């Protein structure tokens, strides 16, 4: 029997796969003091967006983590798709998932 059958789901009484629920809509902020220190640094610099130093640091750390040469973060998937479409040189109607 496959483990992906209904009786094997926690919602139907089986043992949960994880000790604690992961609430997708609830942010995981980690160490509160470290987060607040980073926010204070950002506010002191008065550079919140548009390739600020913390964005550049995030991109560098993410690229290193992923083992890639380049990494570009965007504010949302729509902007990411627009950038990818332009970089690919696509013209006219481009159909993407919603």
Low-confidence segments: none
**How large, in whole angstroms, is the Cα Rg?**
20 Å
Based on CA inertia axes, which overall geometry fits? flat
Determine the number of helices (DSSP H or I, runs of at least 4 residues): 3
- Please state roughly what percent of the residues sit in beta strands, choosing from under 5%, 5-15%, 15-25%, 25-35%, 35-45% or over 45%: under 5%
Count of extended strands: 0
Q: Cα distance, first to last residue?
A: 35 Å
Helix content bin: 25-40%
> Taking all residues together, what is the mean pLDDT?
87
* Biggest sheet features: none
Key phrases:
98 residues, mainly alpha, 3 helices
Give a written overview of the molecule:
The protein has 98 residues and is an all-alpha fold. The protein has a domain at 49-92 and 94-98. Helices cover 40% and strands 0% of the residues. It is flat and about 50 Å long. The two termini are 35 Å apart. The mean pLDDT is 87.
């Amino acid at each position: 029997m496959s483990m992906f059958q209904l009786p094997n789901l926690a919602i139907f009484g089986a043992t949960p796969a994880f000790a604690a629920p992961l609430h997708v809509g609830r942010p995981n902020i980690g160490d509160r003091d470290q987060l607040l220190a980073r926010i204070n640094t950002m506010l002191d610099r008065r550079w919140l967006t548009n390739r600020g130093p913390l964005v550049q640091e995030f991109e560098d750390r993410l690229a290193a983590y992923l083992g890639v040469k380049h990494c570009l973060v965007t504010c949302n998937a729509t902007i990411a798709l627009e950038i990818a479409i332009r970089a690919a040189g696509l013209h006219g109607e481009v159909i993407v998932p919603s």
